[in-house]
Amino acid sequence: MATHRPPNAGLRTVAAFEAAKGLLVMVAGLGLLALLHKDVQRAAEAIVRHLHLNPARHYPRIFIEAAARTTDTRLWLLASGAFAYTIVRAVEAYGLWRARAWAEWFAIASGAIYLPFEIQALVHHASALKAAVLLINVGIVAYVSYVRLSGPSESRTIPERPRAARGAGVSAAPDGERR
After folding, report:
1. Cα 166 off chain centre by
2. Which terminus of the chain has a lower count of CB atoms within 10 Å, N or C?
3. Three-class SS of residue 159?
4. Positive or negative, the Cα torsion across 47, 50, 55, 58?
5. CA–CA gap between residue 86 and residue 81 (Å, rounded)
6. Distances (CA, A) of 101 to 14, 15, 142, 156, 169
């Protein structure tokens, strides 16, 4: 029997956050597809100019050089990866919205897998953004872990329907007692 409990606002908030991440990556994937058969280097140079960045500086130069080496095949692969990520986030969001146990376990695992990389990034080059991302991820993993592991075990499963009572005039109440 499937295990889940009634949805709560916290799980639905996490579900909405995961869905938003998926939608953001889907938009990025569509943006990559829009670059097919176009001069990607020219587009990168236009972005650098629009943001008033110096194209001779380290990061803008890396961005422009990477764009120059981008092929249509690479764009297809990146867009495919973005759409796969979107599907995974959508499935996770659906499961969390419906308070499914499998989605809770998946959210714990998929959030925890990023923690070592986020900690390493924060240690090597600390920034407020990196700290915020780490705190949000730790908060989500801790909250979903708490929801998944707390409470009586009966609250995690759907009760089975009582069997039809045998005999005339005897019925089974929803709590399983005979009346």
Report:
1. 49
2. N
3. coil
4. negative
5. 9
6. 14, 13, 15, 8, 38
- Any idea which residue has 């499963």 for tokens? 157
Candidates 124, 157, 118; CA nearest to 139 is 118
Length of the chain: 179
Q: Terminal CA-to-CA distance of the chain, rounded, Å? A: 26
**Rg (alpha carbons) of the chain, rounded to whole number:** 24
Q: How many helices (H) and strands (E) does the chain have?
A: 7, 0
Distance, CA of 93 to CA of 11 (rounded, Å):
9
Q: Give me the percent of the chain exceeding a pLDDT of 90.
A: 79
> pLDDT (tens digit, 9 = 90+) per residue, 76-112?
999 999 999 999 999 999 999 999 999 999 999 999 9
Q: Helix or strand or coil: residue 4?
A: strand
Q: How far apart are CA 102 and CA 107, in angstroms?
A: 9
